[in-house]
Amino acid sequence: VDKVEAVVYSSYGAPSQVLKWHSYGLPALTRDTVHVKFLASPINPADVNQIQGAYPIKPPFVALGNEDNFSTDGGDNDKVVKAAVGGNEGVAEVIAVGDAVSGLKKGDRVIMAKTGHGTWRTYAAGPPEDFQVVPNATSVSLIQQATISVNPCTAYRMLKDFIPPQQGKCDYVIQNGANSAVGQAVIQIAKAWGLKTINVVRNRYIIAIIAILRQELTALGATHVITDDQLGSFETKSLVKSWVGKNRLLLGLNCVGGKSATEMARYLSANGKLVTYGAMARAPLTLPASMLIFKNISFYGFWVSKWAETHSKEERSEMLADLVQLMAAKQLKEPRWTAVEWNEKAVKEAVENGIQGYGKGKQIVLF
Ligand code: NDP
């Protein structure tokens, strides 16, 4: 291999304007580096925000490969000097290993060690620290390998780290954006761990469509599915009360923000926790004082990138192994997905479409 093809950006803005198809020489293998070949990389909401310049992790614009090799095929003669490769998640195979490298071998399936590595490219070269092996990767599908590090890990950590498990009792979790890729993982991991879920989805005004959505989430293991429109009603309040009974509803997972999050937090038992991980509605979270004063609800944020940065590779590996095991046991399924072809037009269009939501599923570039 001597040439890398990549989708890069060297300024922030609308993906269709700033993304460029770029080819450059793959840096030669050294004693301390490895070469990897990308197999599949998703397009996540955060990738789009990152290209727009609206994400806290901004990969530096660097010279990619050999300076003499720069070319852009965008037809606008706009020579890329320094750029970042788009994408943050994906699975690659190790194809060459330097003599002094330990811990990685040819054929290993790896994910990126950190957010910001750039995964919309055919090959990459780098030190072994850039990558992390997915244990038993080939016991699960390529799509599962490519999408393991963001959504399933987020669901796993939020369910595991905020509420201490209660021996012999069944706890409830309430979540909005329940049909998002993270939400689907929450439903399935919760079920595998003996937790019950109350799942809030955006209403669809065609009854048949909401019925199908309800059916699909129930098939994944959702205990109850309700719509955001129903959240505030008196009937829903009594219904949820009857579902939860004497059990605890101590954890709320907020993908959406705005009114949906405030309404959802009202259902938490005293001393419950609301963990915000997304802001799909782009509306601020309003907190009534009564929730703080009388119910002692506490509010947290979770960011999987920060988690990976502040925990050891061993801890991450333990989580990956647990997730692979759940996947191999068919307790955690592939997210809904659509394939994106590896060519400039298809990738740019897919990124511009950005967040596809439940209907079409996660867009995944197949190399
Ligand atoms: P998906 O594309 O799978 O799902 C998007 C979800 O958002 C769908 O449920 C969709 O519902 C809902 N949605 C879209 N627009 C709105 C809106 N205006 N109001 C309410 N709901 C809306 O996304 P992911 O699962 O990949 O990500 C979901 C969120 O979680 C994103 O904000 C993402 O950035 C964040 N995230 C955060 C992480 C972290 O570490 N903090 C890690 C992973 C993801 P519908 O079907 O009704 O359109």
Automatic annotation (TrEMBL):
Enzyme Commission number(s) from the entry: 1.3.1.104
A GO molecular-function descriptor: enoyl-[acyl-carrier-protein] reductase (NADPH) activity
Localization: Mitochondrion
Reaction equations catalysed: a 2,3-saturated acyl-[ACP] + NADP(+) = a (2E)-enoyl-[ACP] + NADPH + H(+)
GO biological process, one term: fatty acid biosynthetic process
GO-annotated cellular components: mitochondrion
Protein name in the entry: enoyl-[acyl-carrier-protein] reductase
Organism: Phycomyces blakesleeanus (strain ATCC 8743b / DSM 1359 / FGSC 10004 / NBRC 33097 / NRRL 1555)
